[in-house]
Design brief:
The complex is a heterodimer. Chain A has helices spanning about 10-20, 25-35, 50-65, 105-115, 160-170, 185-190, 225-235, 280-295, 310-325, 345-355, 360-370, 380-400, 425-430, 435-440, 470-485; strands at about 45, 75-80, 115-120, 175-180, 195-200, 220-225, 265-270, 300-305, 405-410, 445-450, 460-465. By secondary structure, chain A is an alpha/beta fold. Chain A has a domain at about 5-260: Amidase signature (AS) enzymes (Alpha-Beta Complex). Chain A has an eight-stranded mixed β-sheet with strand order 4-6-5-10-11-9-7-8, with helices on both faces. A three-stranded mixed β-sheet of chain A has the order 1-3-2, sandwiched between helices. In chain A, helix 8 (about 280-295) crosses helix 15 and helix 9 crosses helix 11 (about 360-370). By secondary structure, chain B is mainly alpha-helical. Chain B has a domain at about 5-40. Chain B has helices at about 5-15, 20-40, 80, and strands at about 90, 90-95. The longest helix of chain B has 18 residues, at about 20-40. Chain B is flat and about 50 Å long. Chain B starts with a helix and ends in a 7-residue tail after the last strand. The chains are: A alpha/beta, B mainly alpha. Chains A and B meet through helix 9, helix 10, helix 11, helix 12 and helix 13 of A and helix 1 and helix 2 of B.
């Protein structure tokens, strides 16, 4: 039998449905790859039995002639930010180590209902705060890609969905869930040569996802093709009364409506993204993208997003402010770690528990958020940031008066070595400069691989669409995918 | 705007995070670098702009006022609610003595 772990979501589903192979064979093949890849540290816990049980259920349904779900027989990785009943859910933190939810997140439940199985819980930046997967309590994730310059450095897989990106790139899973607050699906996808889409804010329920910044957090799929992303997003999205910001709108058949013919469509190129000092290869990849979309029939127009430079500073007020509020729940009382020093009272217990349970980046953001929300500073920081957020959204609305989708790079550089930016939080934050604006505006945005740079590392292109228009984003992504012909894979060293 | 060591210690206290002198040694300069970076927002003219309240416009829903409308989030889940508590006693969360 050919190597089943080379197959993507749709190929596995269709192969299982056709009887070319069983779901159990697929699950066993991926379980074996997962077990052999501990060096990548992509998983915090592995759940081979969950993958096998889901596969057996699909095989039994098929044998009984029952209808199969859109993810039937597809084993996936689950970012460890989604609550999974009875399976440790940590957000890569010490404070939640050992926490076994009594309930299942809406998104993961929908995936299981669609016939998917779980290979394990994927590593991430602690509470999804980071761009390199170096803030995890459970250790760094290694990017399966290495530069061809002989340096042999272990590179960052991106973050915060670094376990997801590494697992999909290394063929440990055909697809994985991610979450994106300021770029946490798109940036790791770009760093590992895979695709990933963050849908419109509210498409995927946030119920059961460990909260970071609630007005920004969105779940989405990460996979090795645009079509696989479309299939999986269809299984993840949908109205959920348990999430007060869930969109009460029908879920379109994105996969069925995929169409790379862009005649009559306009692609906007935002001039403010052509920043000084951007890597020449990133700019060349952007030019390739422009040419590919023209070739697909689109008209390319210049657009302006004048407040782009203010997106990152606004994000670093809004996201920490929301985080400081959301993470107030970790108090050593109801779940998670408790550190009770000898003779300590309640307040000392809170402070000791949170000091022991949160990593440095999480503490930094909680404290920053506490500061910008404190009396006397609230208007100068938080209110001003939310006004700037309105302006950023207005920029996009104006731009979408002139185009149907926006094309830009996903990141300012290719993957960097682990440790490279660890001592300078600000340098790390700048990695999200191209991804944060779409997050602040709640828009659907996707990264697709474009080419390898001179060092043999993948680069990504980003597509940003109008609210609710994931279809246009996916269609343009497909047009790029068909022309980029990106079929490179990392050489196995783990 | 920059913050002093004392201010950072105060913020940590408000955030209920115990910090020691060594933590402050790195938090203070990191804070000031980040605050210096976000300072540029003050140059944006927002005099005629409303702060964003919802990123995607929609009406906030109210659920039906029915007990246990959703059994998962309704009542009668004491054991499940306490299952992950560091200390649970007599059906309650256990905490250190609050009242002397």
């Amino acid at each position: 039998m050919s190597d089943l772990t080379l197959l993507g979501v749709k190929a596995i589903r269709d192969g299982v449905a056709a009887g070319d192979f069983t779901a159990r064979e697929v699950a066993e093949a991926f379980n074996a790859n997962v077990a052999a890849a501990s060096e990548l540290n992509a998983f915090i816990v592995t759940t081979p039995e969950h993958a096998l049980a889901a596969a057996d259920a699909v095989d039994a349904k098929r044998a009984a002639g029952e209808e199969l779900g859109v993810m039937a027989g597809v084993p996936i990785g689950m970012k460890d930010l989604f609550a999974t009943r009875g399976v440790q859910t940590t957000a890569a933190s010490a404070i939640l180590e050992g926490f076994k939810p009594e309930y299942e997140s809406t998104v993961s439940q929908k995936l299981w209902d669609a016939g998917a199985g779980m290979l394990g819980k994927l590593n991430l930046d602690q509470f999804a705060m980071g761009s390199s997967n170096e803030t995890s309590h459970f250790g760094n994730v290694a990017n399966p890609w290495k530069a061809n310059d002989g340096s042999n450095n272990v590179l960052a897989p991106g973050g915060s969905s670094g376990g997801s990106s590494a697992a999909v790139a290394a063929r440990l899973a055909p697809a994985a869930t991610g979450t994106d607050t300021g770029g946490s699906i798109r940036q790791p996808a770009a760093f590992t040569g895979i695709s990933g889409i963050k849908p419109t804010y509210g498409r995927c329920s946030r119920w059961g996802i460990v909260a970071f910044a609630s007005s920004l957090d969105q779940a989405g799929p990460m996979a090795r093709s645009v079509e696989d992303c479309a299939v999986m997003l269809g299984a993840m999205a949908g109205f959920d009364p348990k999430d007060s910001t869930s969109l009460d709108a029908p879920v379109p058949d994105w996969a069925g409506a995929l169409n790379a013919d862009l005649r009559g469509k306009k692609v906007g190129i935002p001039k403010e993204y052509r920043m000084d000092g951007t890597d020449a290869e990133i700019l060349a990849s952007w030019d390739d993208g422009i040419a590919w979309l023209k070739d697909a029939g689109a008209e390319v127009v210049d657009v302006s997003l004048p407040h782009t430079k203010y997106a990152l500073p606004a994000y670093y007020i809004v996201a920490p402010a929301e985080a400081s509020s959301n993470l107030a729940r970790y108090d050593g009382v109801r779940y998670g770690l408790r550190d009770l020093p000898e003779g300590a009272g309640l307040q000392d217990m809170y402070a000791a528990t949170r000091a022991a349970g949160f990593g440095p980046e999480v503490k930094r953001r909680i404290m920053l958020g506490t500061y910008v929300l404190s009396a006397g500073f609230y208007d100068a920081y938080y209110t001003q940031a939310m006004k700037v957020r309105t302006l950023i959204q207005r920029d996009f609305n104006d731009a979408f008066g002139e185009c149907d989708v926006i094309l830009a790079p996903t990141t300012p550089t290719a993957a960097f070595p682990l440790g490279d930016k660890l001592d300078d939080p600000l340098a790390m934050y700048l990695n999200d400069v191209f991804s944060v604006p779409a997050s602040l505006a709640g828009l659907p945005a996707m990264s697709v691989p474009s080419r390898l740079n001179a060092k043999g590392l993948p680069l990504g292109l980003q597509l940003v669409g109008k609210a609710m228009d994931e279809q246009m984003v996916l269609n343009a992504g497909l047009a790029i995918e068909q022309r980029a012909g990106f079929d490179a894979a990392p050489g196995k060293w783990w | 705007m920059s913050v002093t060591r004392e201010q950072v210690a105060k913020i940590a206290s408000l955030a209920r995070i115990k910090v020691d002198e060594g933590d402050l040694d790195h938090f203070v300069p990191e804070f000031n670098a980040i605050l210096g970076f976000v300072e540029q927002l003050s140059e944006v003219d927002t005099s005629s702009v409303e702060p964003m309240t919802a990123v995607i416009e929609q009406k906030l829903r109210l659920r039906d006022d029915v007990i246990d409308a959703d059994p998962l989030t309704g009542g009668g889940k004491q054991a499940e609610v306490l299952a992950n508590a560091p200390v649970a006693e007599h059906g309650f969360f256990g905490v250190p003595k609050v009242i002397e």
